[in-house]
Amino acid sequence: MNDKKETNNFIAQAGILAMAGIISRIIGLLYRSPLTGIIGDEGNGYYNYAINIYAIILLISSYSIPSALSKLIAGKLAFKEYRNAHRIFHCTLIYVITVGGIASLFAYVAAPFLVVPNAVSVLRIFVPAIFLSGLCGVLRGYFQAHRTMVQTSISQILEQIVNAAVSIGAAYALTRLVKDQDATTRAIYGAMGSAIGTGSGVLMALLFMLAMYGINRKVILKRVRKDKTGKLDSYGDIFKMLLLIVTPFILSTFIYNFSTSLDQTLYSRLMMQLKGLTQEQTATYYGVFNTKAITIVNIPIALATAMSAAMMPNVSGLYARGEMEALKEKVRQAIKVSMLVSIPASVGLAVLAKPVMQILFPQKVSLDLASALLCALSVTVVFFSLSTLTMGILQGIGKVNAPVIHAAVSLVIQALVLVLVLVFTDWNLYGLVLANITYSLLMCILNELRMRKELGIKQEIRSTFVRPFLCAAGMGLVARAVYEGLYFILPVNLPAAIVSILVSLVTYLILVIKTKTVTKEELQGFPKGTTLVGLCEKLHLL
Question: Does a structural domain hold residue 304?
Answer without folding.
Answer: yes
